[in-house]
Specification:
heterodimer, A: mainly alpha, Arc Repressor Mutant, subunit A, 3-stranded antiparallel β-sheet, 6 helices, 4 strands, B: alpha/beta, D-Maltodextrin-Binding Protein, domain 2, 2 domains, 6-stranded mixed β-sheet, 11 helices, Poly-beta-hydroxybutyrate-responsive repressor (chain A)
Chain lengths: 129, 273
């Protein structure tokens, strides 16, 4: 993995770090890394995945997508190539992929700390009973 | 001025404020335009277009109407641009409003002295969505017969042409409660009770659950009936194929879908896409 911490410049990264526990932004970035999607579909995927700590309502998801767009993490455009219904589709920008890498780094660090806690508990509390 | 360019907008009553605000913005940029606004329940709007009414912009409270009543003859592309939910709107003097909660609202509404309204399902999507909310509530709260009880109490004059009119009558105290969109409650500054997500038709996560509710409506042709299923509430906008001024209509559409337009929609209580 790239040395993400040295690359942190976009203020969005600080926003992500402050809310990493909720896991909403990592989940959105993750699903968009698979393929572009519209908000309706993302709401279903995020809430169906169990990745996010919260069951996100549409207002929360769309506000986050708008913020991610303003921060340059996603790009949106209306799907107008066919007749019938058109929806705004979101896709990850290169900055969005970097943000996803950053999330993975934060989660990895967090998991390592929690794992260390569990091991120490097993060894020093449960093991000494 | 005889050669003044006109933009005719026909829209769902629920979209009154955001459409007016976007029209004002366009008017500032294009002072020469004559912008004409007209609103009804969305099914009524769609029927008027089918019956020959010519408009440049058509903004409706249910994308399904474009498929069911207008496509592909009158509209071949429409933009689904916002989401909303059904709430129970009231004012501070509505009977029982001091004790109403998401767990007891139906008991309050069924009290003899309480009045509540809904819109007409054949004219306004808010009407059939309200009937769906009642059906889902019967199941969600485990109250067999609840739909029938609410339906029995909300008849005649308590059924309005569009949700905007309902909110207006709650505001002046003519009605105690009304089932309207959140954006309509916000536009009128009404108090409202948020209903559980599993019944308020707001969240795509519950798409399958919502689809259990069905309502029969007058179809496209006289005497024909159709059955529609519950779905998350969305709003859509289009330039009809017979628009007289499609270029100006596109300017308005682009504005509604722009960053500024999304902000306006959010300020009006909608969730813009």
């Amino acid at each position: 993995m790239r040395p993400v911490k040295e690359e942190v410049q976009n203020p969005a990264f600080a926003y992500i770090a402050g809310r990493i526990d909720k896991m909403l932004v990592p989940a959105l970035l993750y699903f968009l890394a698979h393929k572009p999607a519209h908000g309706y579909e993302l709401i279903q995927k995020v809430n169906g995945s169990g990745f996010s700590e919260i069951e996100a309502d549409p207002a929360t998801i769309y506000r986050n997508l708008r913020r991610m767009e303003e921060d340059g993490l996603v790009i949106s455009q209306w799907e107008t190539e066919h007749t019938g219904p058109a929806r705004r589709a979101y896709q990850l920008s290169p900055e969005g992929y970097r943000a996803l890498d950053y999330c993975v780094q934060l989660i990895t660090d967090k998991v390592a700390r929690m794992q260390a806690f569990l091991e120490q508990y097993q060894r020093e509390v449960k093991g000494s009973e | 001025m005889s050669n003044q360019l006109t933009l005719k907008i026909l829209h769902a009553g629920a979209l009154r404020k955001p459409v007016v605000e976007c029209a004002k913005l366009l008017q500032e940029a294009r002072p020469e335009l004559d912008i004409q606004l007209e609103s009804h329940g969305s099914r009524a709007c769609a029927r008027q277009v089918r019956e020959g009414k010519v408009v440049d912009i058509l903004a409706l409270a249910d994308p399904m109407l474009f498929e069911e009543l207008l496509g592909p003859e009158y509209v071949d592309r429409y933009f689904i641009f916002a989401n909303d939910q059904i709430v129970l709107a009231y004012h501070e003097f509505s009977r029982g409003s001091g004790e109403i909660t998401a767990q007891n609202w139906f008991d309050i509404l069924l009290k003899d002295e309480v009045t509540f309204g809904r819109s007409n399902e054949n004219l306004d999507p808010c009407g059939y969505r309200t009937l769906m909310v009642w059906q889902l509530a019967e199941q969600y709260y485990g109250r067999p017969g609840l739909f029938g009880q609410l339906d029995q109490r909300c008849r005649g004059d308590l059924i309005y042409p569009k949700s905007y009119d309902l909110a207006s009558d709650v505001l002046v105290g003519k009605l105690n409660y009304a089932f309207v969109y959140l954006c309509v409650a916000n536009q009128f500054g009404l108090r409202y009770l948020t209903l559980p997500e599993k019944i308020n038709l707001s969240n795509p996560t519950y798409e399958d659950y919502y689809s259990q509710a069905t309502v029969s409506l007058q179809g496209k042709n006289s005497g024909e009936m159709i059955t529609i299923s519950g779905a998350p509430i969305e709003f859509a906008i289009a330039i009809p194929k017979n628009a007289e001024n499609p270029a100006v209509a596109k300017d308005f559409l682009d504005l509604m879908l722009s960053h500024r337009g999304r902000q306006l929609l959010e300020d009006c209580g909608l969730i813009p896409y």
